[in-house]
User: What shape does this take?
Amino acid sequence: MIDEISLQIIRILQKKARIPNVEVARKVGMAPSAVLERIRKLEKLGIIDGYEVRLNPAHFGREMVAFVSVRSNRSGGDDVLGRRLAAIPAVQEVHYLSGEDAYLLKLRVGGTGELGQVLREQIAPLEGIGATLTRIALTTYKETFQISPEIPA
Assistant: This one.
């Protein structure tokens, strides 16, 4: 299903999701209706998973990024704990890691006070939390959800 033209469309949409369909069509050398049909097919297949607005965290007082390693006190992980961690508004990402019964969280908060409050009041009380280790990002050089799509082998 994915050919070079579909990859071109995906790359264009990753850079600017709100680009007019006519402009995408011009860039890939196709009719706008054919491009729209391809986009709808990519959405239906789940290749394009959605569209979202990227907000500037500084405008909302959320400039601090922290990574929190959460060790579970249960072996084999806990799907319920993972979902509870994901429900915390300051948590942007939750990853269950191999090798240890641990989750890696990415939080975006307004500062150390808010970070401490989230750790104390929202994370620590959860059943299944064994220990946490927090690291604060001093500088972010790259942050993206874009992937480099290639034609599957």
